[in-house]
Amino acid sequence: MKVDVGLRYGRLIVIDLINDKTNKRAMCLCDCGNVTFPQRTRLKSGATQSCGCKRSDDLRSRITKHDLSRTVEYRAFMKIFYACSNPKHNLYKFFGARGVKCLYKDVTHLIEDIGQSPPGFSSIELIDKNDHFKPGNCRWAKTGKHLPEPVQLKVWIADGVVFNSAKEVASHYGISLSTVYNRCNGYTWQGNEYGPWPGWRSEFKQTNEAETA
Ligand SMILES: [Zn+2]
User: Fold this and answer.
1) Ligand 1 center to 57 CA (angstroms)
2) Which pLDDT tens digit goes with each residue over 26-77?
């Protein structure tokens, strides 16, 4: 079929035919609003389908795809991946060490399941905490919703007051850290033997397991 006024080629609609000596061109209106003058043979073959805007759109979407590595989603994926697989990761004890695995193949797989992160949401939450990071068991959670604090394994009790660290006890009483340890751990010299300091002790604190990575 000959290129003619009114026909559409991709984003272009032919609005006039132009004949000069060497080239047969067409005057086209592109969907984006630009007017362009492609060779008719290129319209026919499909080589030209826009004023050039399609190419830059395609390029942009390729770049965007590539740039997933800089996105919130990619970082979130890497975080759960390492929290499950790298014993040196600070969240490993909450996930990998408990047998939790990351069963998403890659960030695209994650996005297919839970979509892109809404603004302000960059953590990934397990719905069933005893199951894996896998399709159907995850959702976005608020940024830093409960990123675990540095874990305080013990509380320190001195004269009925509970402290979160031995350091706090030391500064409260103006004594050394080792004195606190000795008193709370029951290694205070009592004259003839080591024993606990009355009213002082340390005990393990119940920690909430991290639910998000
Ligand atoms: Zn265009």
Assistant:
1) 10
2) 999 988 888 899 999 999 999 999 988 887 777 666 656 656 666 788 889 9
CA–centroid distance, 51 to ligand 1, in Å, is: 4
CA–centroid distance, residue 60 to ligand 1 (Å): 14
Question: Is 0.70 topped by the overall pTM?
Answer: no
Distance from the CA of 70 to the center of ligand 1, in angstroms? 29
Q: Where are the domains of the chain?
A: 8-66, 76-142, 154-204
Q: Is the dihedral of CA 75, 79, 85, 90 positive or negative?
A: positive
Q: Which two tokens stand for residue 211?
A: 């639910």
Single out the residue of 83, 125, 97 nearest to residue 211, CA to CA.
125
